[in-house]
Each structure stands twice: as structure tokens, then as C-alpha cells.
Amino acid sequence: MLIAGALPAAAHALGRAAVEDVDVAPELVRELDLAVLLGICDFVGRAAAQVALPADPADVVPAADRHRWIAGHWVRALAAEGWADVDGSGLLRSVRSPRRAELAAAREAITVSVAGLGYPPALATYVLDSLRALPSLLTDEVTAQALLFRDSELATADAAYRDNPVNRYLNAAAASVVADLVRARGGLRVLELGAGTGATTADLLPTLAGTGSDYLFTDLSPLFLRDAAARFADHAYLRFRLVDFTEPLEPQVREGDFDLVVAVNTAHNATDVPDLLRQVAGLLRADGALLLVETCHEHHQSLASMPFLLSPRPGGRPVVRTDLRAGTTRTYLTGPEWASAAAGAGLEQVVDLPPPDHPLAAFSQRLAVFTPSSKRSRTP
Fold this sequence. Notes:
Keywords: Methyltransferase, Transferase
Number of strands: 9
CATH class of the largest domain: Alpha Beta
CATH superfamily of the largest domain: Vaccinia Virus protein VP39
Pfam families: Methyltransf_12
Shape: globular
Number of helices: 16
Domain Methyltransferase type: 191-290
CATH architecture of the largest domain: 3-Layer(aba) Sandwich
GO molecular function: methyltransferase activity
Structural class: alpha/beta
Organism: Saccharothrix longispora
Oligomer: single chain
Mean pLDDT: 92
Helix content: 40-55%
Strand content: 15-25%
Distance between the termini: 24 Å
CATH topology of the largest domain: Rossmann fold
Largest sheet: 7 strands, mixed
């Protein structure tokens, strides 16, 4: 049984051990944010100089239909920093014009900050390439996936989701949680949603080896499933299935109760987070657990890449949020918003890491573990 008092301390200890060789300067997170946003500011400003202002940001920056929302998202971030003026109707009235020297300094700051935060050089290359490619990304001449998985390699994705201090900490802490469950009951029935490249899966599997566990690895992408099947071929207890959790889960899973549901950097893609959590609660055993890793604040450093990954697929339906993000372009929930949505689904939080005073908290990525409350009502 998960023990709320001991579990967070044990998970935090293993997370710290995974990054004890790294000295992270949290102020570099802000420096990286501003450097990336300055590059976006320059791009928007040059586009704005070609049109009559005030104007709808979507009409200022040429974009494919599925990406038209992104310009407004950027302009709101620029306005929040005082770099753009937006009127009450959301029209862009003016935008800052960075000097060449500032832009050169920003490019250097991206490289220095990425290195100082413990990320591999591949991530700085990806960020700079994304900024250069903004016009082509917006018009779909280049896709964010092509930049992230250049030449079908995972080096850049691993730099973003695995080979860095914050993800090493989070993955080690997550593995500690899974190990605690294994000690309590032996083999586990595990469902991972939106498993992607398996960056976290790889750190969870050693705790499950030889325990008689069953692990259902799911994703929306057949490519990820194929690659994961090859990457984890030595783990016979893994199964792979195409699952779209923006659709009802139970008909796709059809497995009964799970001891553990894992969702790493993916649950925010649900159009209605409280509904997703209610569905997950309905798939858990009474003593099961939901393990989430989520970004709880949208940093400017992600604005040159992440929005393109969140746009609807070509020819697909527009993404319409029906939860507390409805009517906005927000991507992420805050930590308290996740806790509230989970409570509404009959789940109570037993882990929230890293602690707020830890340097890695500046990244705004959090490990949250929820267990069914004694008062929950199961979804039929």
C-alpha cells in the first residue's frame, strides 16, 4: 500500500541521487525564456511591419489554417512581458523591434543557458533551428516533428525528455514510486498513456523485470509503437496498442482494473482533463495509483516548438478544450488545478515533487501521484 508520508521522501531522495553530479542554476530558466521570446518578437515584429495595425495577430503572420491560433498565443506572451501592445479586442497595436546586437546576444544566451541547465547541445540546436524555421513551420513547409526527429533519430527528443537533470530527477522519482508498488504487491498491471518515445518507460522497466508484471504501452502514433516494440524487444511482458485518449478509454483498453496508470507529459493533450481523470479513476484498482508527469507552467522557451505539436493534425478537427481552458489557448494546468481535477475524479494526491524550494522546481515540471480516495464512486 502506498504510504503518503514516506513515499514522497523516498522518491525525492532517489531523484536527488540521479542529479547529484549536476549544479543547476535556476535563473537560467528565465534567461532561456527571454532569449527564445526575443527571437519570436523579432519574427512577429518584422511581419507586423508589412501590415496595417491594429490587426488580428492571425492576420499579421502568414500561417496554415491549423496554425493560425499560434500568432495570438505568441502575442499574448509578448504583451505579458511588455514587448507588445494589444487592445481590448485582442488586436495587435505595436510590437517591439529588437536590435541586431540583442538578437545575437539572445542566440548566444540560448546556447549558454541550455548547457548551464544540463541539457545536451542537441537541444540548443533544436531551439535555434525552430526559431529560424518559424515561417516554414507556420505554413507547414516544415513540421515540428521533422525537426524533433531529424533523420529519424531520437537524440533531440531524448535531450528534451530524458537526457537532462529535471527529467533524470523525475524519472528516478517515478521509478521509486513504481518500486514501492512492486514491494507492496509484486507484479503490476500497468497502462501507460501517450508513451511516445518511451523516455520514462525505460526507467520504469528495471523495477518491473522478473515480477510477473504486464505493461500495456500505448500511443496515438503507430511510428512510436513500432519504434518502442524494437527498443524494448527484450521485455516480453510489454504489449503495444494504438490508443487515442481523446476518445473514450474503456472501449480501447478493455482490460479491467490496473494497478498503475502512467501518463508522462501527455495528459494535458486531453480536451477535458477532469473527464480524462474520471476515466482513469474508473480503470484503477481500489489500491491503484495514477502517476503523472506534467509541465505546470508554459515557459517561453517552448513557444518556438510546442505550439506546432499541439495544433490539430493536417485535415483533422480543431482542438476544442471543454475544461477550465475553454475559450483560451492555454496548454497546461497548474499544480493546484491538477489536484482539484483529480479530487473531482475521486483521486487524492500523495506525491508532489520536486519540493518548491528545490532548484529543479524552476523548470515547472512536476511528478504527481494520485490514489483513489476512500469516498470515490467507481465509473461503471
